[in-house]
Amino acid sequence: MNTDKQLEVLISYLETNKIFYRENYSLKYETYFKMGGKVKCFITPQSYDKFKQAVIFLQSNHINYKVIGFTSNIILFDEIEYSVILSPKNLTLLEIQDNVVQVEAGYSLQDFVRVVAILNNSEGYEGLEGIPASIGGAIVMNAGAYGHDISDNLISVECIDKNNQVIILEKKDCHFRLRNSIFRRSGNYVILKAKFKLKNGNKDLIAKNIEKFHIARHLYQDFVYPNLGSMIVVRDDAYKLILSENLLYSTIFWILKYGLKNPVSKFILRKRPNNIVFNKLLFFYLKYKKHILLKYKLSPKSLNILINDGSVSAQEIVNYIFLLNDLLENKCHLENELVIEPAYKINPEFETTLNIIIDRLNNQEKNENSTNYKS
């Protein structure tokens, strides 16, 4: 936990060096999920050099900080007042030369896809359309969809390590795997920029794929409530996996599946696709077979989408995340990050929930440490 003295020194340094920042800034409406407490110092350096300067100062002075991107995959809690948060959102330079694109960490992934895929006819990026992330954040979690990962065409990543050295990691050194990388796992690097290769493709086909994926995304993603997209990565139908434990509920599931997910039904429901019926089936299954009364309001689109309806509590969110993980018997990978540090002040009523988070994250880390990374 950072001390008041450290924060005073930091503010003085930012002022002297004219690095953009805000004090006692409310994160709630800055985040994608529209949740989050205040932060004592929210640093948004206005350039590559200023960003690098800020990172080096923070690390040299042993000031704990958290780097966030577009926050489309992280949960910050109203009950936590954070100390120092650093954002690369002003790092937006993009350059293309000799079929190589170099882009800074704060550039929008959605804009990046349109620049490289549509304007430069480069294939292999189509599945990334619609992912509301920064380049840096997308690299950290190896963002992807529809068979495309951001690491597929990555050449290298420029970053700062814990020794304040600016280094370049080649793709093989980033240890990418499903929604993970060395950046997410170790926390030893801060991404500055990255290089990607351009591979010439058919412009019309690229455009058709982007349109196809965009339509498909609207079928299963929630665009009404503030949300974080898919909460977990699971290779099969999550409803099927959970309900398959019970013959009765599994049978009902398949009857509903064939009745509501056939081509005719999909066409009829195309203007408002949803999984409300399957949510109700899950609710009854949990209540009568698992003796769990689900308080969290599920997204009409999917049990896999975490939504904020304005009334949900932090405890309900945390309970639901870990409940889903337990129901799937760890056959999934949690995409969303629960941010609990660096904390300046914590609401005492949040302590129990915080302890649950810490215990579960520690167990998750142990499980991940037992798995070898793939290059």
UniProtKB/TrEMBL annotation:
Principal subcellular localisation of the protein: cytoplasm
Domain FAD-binding PCMH-type, chain residue ranges per copy: 35-201
Alphabetically ordered keywords of this record: Cell cycle, Cell division, Cell shape, Cell wall biogenesis/degradation, Cytoplasm, FAD, Flavoprotein, NADP, Oxidoreductase, Peptidoglycan synthesis
GO CC annotations, alphabetized: cytosol
Active site location: 179, 230
Pathway(s) the chain acts in: Cell wall biogenesis; peptidoglycan biosynthesis
Protein name per the record: UDP-N-acetylenolpyruvoylglucosamine reductase
Coiled-coil segments on the chain, per record: none
Role summary: Cell wall formation.
Enzyme class: oxidoreductase
InterPro entries linked to this entry: FAD-bd_PCMH, FAD-bd_PCMH-like_sf, FAD-bd_PCMH_sub1, FAD-bd_PCMH_sub2, MurB, Oxid_FAD_bind_N
